Prior knowledge:
Layout: H1 2-6, H2 18-38, H3 47-59, H4 61-67, H5 70-79, H6 87-97, E1 103-110, E2 113-123, H7 131-135, H8 139-158, H9 163-183, H10 187-190, E3 198-201, H11 202-208, H12 214-220, E4 228-231, H13 234-246, H14 249-264, H15 270-285, H16 293-304, H17 306-317, H18 320-342, H19 349-361, H20 386-398, H21 401-404
Parallel strand pairs: 2-4
Antiparallel strand pairs: 1-2, 3-4
Amino acid sequence: GGWMKSHPLTAEYARYGVFNELAEKNREQIKELFAELSAKKHAQGSVGQKVTDLYNLAMDSVRLNNEGADPLKQDLLEINRMKKADLTEALAKHHLCLGNPFFGIGVEADLKNSNMNVVYLSAGTSGLPDRDYYLKTDADSKKIQEQYRLPLQKLFVLTGYTVKEAKRAVKTIYDIEYAFAEAKMSRAEARDYTKQYNIYTVEKLQQEFPAIEWKKYFELMGLKNLRQVILTQPKVMDVAQKYMAQMTEQQIRDYIAGDVITSSTNYLSDEIAETAFDFYGRTLRGQKERQPRWKRAQGYPNSLLGEAVGQLYVKKYFPEEAKAKIMKLVNNLRNSLAEHIASLTWMSDSTKINSLVKLNAFTVKVGYPDKWRDYSNLTIDAGKSLYENIKAASRCETRSEEHTSELQ
Length: 408
């Protein structure tokens, strides 16, 4: 009980441990760094300009509240004009920036060969954290289900829909999310990764799930000449295929619009953000209030321009000579361990050789990379809204070479 007594839970936290404490100390250092950066003039296109402008846009509550839902209007207008024939292009556009309607895509190490990166495809995007939130029928679960639908309806109204239109959209969204929940593996089933390792060629995807033009979709995502993917849950993709094929154009529009709206709440006015937080923060996580604005604001460049912030951070807090000192220490440890292995009397010579080979194969990573990531293809424009700049940064992150250069 000592930790709880010395670290009473504050309103912004639902839980607090040692890693939260480390994160708080780090946030204070980044706050100081951003304050110094904001006081300087930065050349357009520089790392300092991109990080500072994105942070300051998120800090400008007056502008965010004056803009309200306006930054979303163009995207919602395009969604509400889309035809069913436009589905492939529409999904690729939104998957690149914000949200994952119908299914999601990502690049990770191959579960059966860690030397390769592969594309994973997972269907069944949902607003609640887990399938059980939809399928349980006890009183508490039914209350959560209702509490989820009400703020979702309010978010539609706050972004320009009538109450009647909002109710229609929420019904469509909940129906498809419920169908996804029914098809998803249980938690116990999902722990067996062999069940989620289902290799599909692009041709097989096209044959079994023809609602999407898959070759075109992958090209729009920046994945030209992709040969195959790992489909994690084919049964859920079956449900996505059924809905994509059978839904009316209006239902598809409402479903995609809902995904875009809920993915964007933190980049719009306080009223919109607070509506989302009231459910996801207070109801689901037990938080009493949102983090202070400066913590939320630094989170955007931290997550979307991580190495740019890192480059500025280490310049201030972990200079080159500090890294060189630690690298020397690590190399001394490696040499000492090699000498210790060589002098062991209970280990055979062949085992010693294999141990030394393994020791020398370790890649030492200290503080920061030897080569920083290049963000020159990203433009952060302070004249545009926070939402538009987040979209640009998200698109850049999704299509980054670091994620796709080693694909097989």
